[in-house]
Design brief:
447 residues; alpha/beta; TIM Barrel; 8-stranded parallel β-barrel; 14 helices; elongated; binds pyridoxal-5'-phosphate
Length: 447
C-alpha cells in the first residue's frame, strides 16, 4: 500500500544498521509500542528507563515551521538532543545544523550532513575545535569578543563570521545573554577589530533565551540586529546573514505563547526591517521546537518508602493532611534524563480519577539527595515495578544526562507512525523531502 511504501522508504533513509527504527503499521499505536517494551523488559527482569522517539512528530514540526516561517531556514541546535535518528531525519528534511563543539560537528558530518549546512554557533570556542572546523570546511561561525577574533584570525582566517549580539532575554526560562553577546554600544569597536585583523563578517545573530515566553522579545531583538547590521554595512562589511537563534516552544500543553504567535511577530518584524533582498539569508537555531514533544520517557518505580505522618519530619508534616506520606524512587532522575528539572520545573497534570491520593515525594535513583524529581505531588499510590510515562522529554534531557552512580542512560527506541500522508500533508511531504522522494525513485517506488 501507499502507507507501507512510505514507511519502508523512510526506514531506508533513517535507519542504516544502528538506529533500529520501528515502523508502526496502521493497527499499532505509540501506546502499544511502549506497552510491548515494558512487557519485554519485565519478562527479562530488567527495569531500565527508556524513551520512545516519534519521528513523525519531527516531520509535523518541520511542516509547521516551513509553513509559518517560510523566510527562515532552520538550523537544528544539536546540543538540545543529539540522537542520530533525529539528525538523520532533519538532514533528510534539508534543515541546517547548529553545532557548538568539535564533537557535535563530528557527529553531524558522520551522519551525512555537509559542512555548508553547519553553523558553528558558539561565540567562545577552544582553538583546537576551530582548527577542526577549518579542516572539515565548516566555515560559518559566531563570535562576540575581540579575543575570539584574534583566535579565529590565527586558526581559521578564511572563516565567515557572524556577530552575536546581546538581547533582552528576561522573558526566557534559560537566559543566555549574561554569558554571550556583544552589547550594542560595543558593536562598532568589535567590528573595527575584525577589520584590523582582515576578517570577513557576514552576519548578525542573537538568542532571546531558551524557553522564551514573550513573542515581543523577537521584535526587539530583530530591531537590535538591524541596528548592528547598519553599523556593519557602513563599516564596509558585506552583510548577508541574519540568524534569529532559538527560543521557540516545543510543546503546547503549558506554554502560554504558541509557535504561531512567535512566527507572526517574527514575520512582521522581518518584513519591516529586513525586507526580502537579494542575497539576504535568514536562519534560526531551533532546538526545543523540533524535539521536545517527540520523546516520551518511561520510568520505573524501583523503590518505595511509606512513612506514617507521625514519623515524618516537621518540615513535611505541615504541608500535608493524608495519613501517610509516600517516597518513591524512580530509575531515572536529575543526574539522568530529568536533568532538565534544574532549569525547568516539572509541569504535572491533574490525575483524573477517584482513587485516593497521597502526598508523595519522588526521587531519582542515585545516592544523592539533590536527585529530587518532585517534592510535593498528590498522586494515587504507586507500587514497586510500576511504569510511568513522562511526555515532552526531548529537550535537554538526554544531552545533559550522566551515568553518575553507575545508573545507565535511558535507551531510545525510534518509531515512525506516518500512516496518513494524504492531501495537503502529502503535498508538503513532497515539497520538503526531496531526498526522500529521490530515494523512493531510486528504489523504483511510487508515492
Ligand atoms: N542556539 C544557541 C547558540 C543556543 O545556546 C541554544 C540553546 O541554548 C539554542 C540555539 C537552542 O535554543 P532552544 O533551546 O531555545 O531551542
Amino acid at each position: 500500500t501507499k502507507e507501507a511504501t512510505i514507511n519502508e522508504s523512510m526506514v531506508r533513509v533513517f535507519s542504516p544498521e544502528n538506529d533500529d527504527i520501528e515502523i508502526l503499521d496502521s493497527g499499532r499505536s505509540i501506546t502499544d509500542v511502549i506497552d510491548t517494551k515494558m512487557k519485554e523488559l519485565d519478562s527479562r527482569g530488567k527495569d531500565e528507563p527508556f524513551y520512545v522517539l516519534k519521528l513523525d512528530d519531527i516531520l509535523e514540526k518541520h511542516i509547521r515551521w516551513i509553513t509559518r516561517l517560510p523566510r527562515v531556514k532552520p538550523f537544528y541546535a544539536v546540543k538540545c538532543n543529539n540522537t542520530p535518528a533525529v539528525i538523520r531525519m532533519l538532514n533528510a528534511l534539508d534543515t541546517g545544523f547548529d553545532c557548538a563543539s568539535k564533537a557535535e560537528i563530528e557527529l553531524a558530518l558522520s551522519l551525512g550532513v555537509t559542512p555548508d549546512k553547519i553553523i558553528y554557533a558558539h561565540p567562545t570556542k577552544p582553538r583546537s575545535h576551530i582548527r577542526y572546523a577549518r579542516t572539515h570546511r565548516v566555515n560559518v561561525m559566531t563570535f562576540d569578543n575581540e579575543e575570539e577574533l584574534l583566535k579565529i584570525s590565527l586558526t581559521h582566517p578564511q572563516a565567515k563570521l557572524v556577530m552575536r549580539i546581546a538581547v533582552d532575554d528576561s522573558k526566557s526560562l534559560l537566559r543566555l545573554n549574561a554569558k554571550f553577546g556583544v552589547r550594542l554600544s560595543s558593536v562598532s569597536k568589535l567590528l573595527e577589530c575584525a577589520r584590523r585583523l582582515n576578517l570577513e563578517v557576514i552576519g548578525v545573530s542573537f538568542h532571546v533565551g531558551s524557553g522564551c515566553t514573550g513573542s515581543m522579545a523577537f521584535k526587539q531583538a530583530i530591531t537590535d540586529a538591524r541596528y548592528a547590521f547598519d553599523i556593519a554595512n557602513s563599516a564596509g562589511f558585506q552583510m548577508r546573514l541574519l540568524d534569529i537563534g532559538g527560543g521557540f516552544p516545543g510543546r503546547e500543553d503549558f506554554t502560554e505563547v504558541k509557535f504561531e504567535e512567535f512566527s507572526e511577530v517574527i514575520n512582521k518584524a522581518l518584513d519591516e526591517l529586513f525586507p526580502p533582498a537579494n542575497g539576504l539569508e535568514i536562519i534560526a537555531e531551533p532546538g526545543r521546537f523540533y524535539v521536545d514533544s517527540a520523546f516520551t520517557l518511561a520510568v520505573n518505580v524501583i523503590a518505595k518508602r511509606v512513612e506514617d505522618t507521625d514519623e515524618c519530619s516537621g518540615k513535611y508534616r505541615k504541608d500535608y493532611s493524608s495519613e501517610k506520606m509516600m517516597m518513591y524512587y524512580f530509575n531515572d532522575g536529575v543526574y539522568g534524563s530529568l536533568s532538565c528539572l534544574i532549569n525547568d520545573p516539572a509541569h504535572t497534570k491533574a490525575v483524573d480519577n477517584s482513587e485516593p491520593r497521597y502526598y508523595s515525594a519522588i526521587w531519582g535513583p542515585t545516592c544523592d539527595s539533590f536527585d529530587k524529581v518532585t517534592k510535593s505531588y498528590w498522586i494515587p499510590e504507586l507500587h514497586v515495578g510500576d511504569w510511568l510515562l513522562i511526555d515532552n522529554m526531548g529537550a535537554y534531557s538526554l544531552s545533559t544526562s550522566t551515568d553518575f552512580n553507575g545508573f545507565e542512560r535511558a535507551h531510545i527506541y525510534p518509531v515512525v507512525t506516518i500512516t496518513q500522508l494524504t492531501g495537503q500533508n502529502l503535498q508538503s511531504f513532497r515539497l520538503i523531502a526531496p531526498s526522500i522522494i529521490l530515494l523512493l525513485h531510486h528504489c523504483n517506488r511510487e508515492i
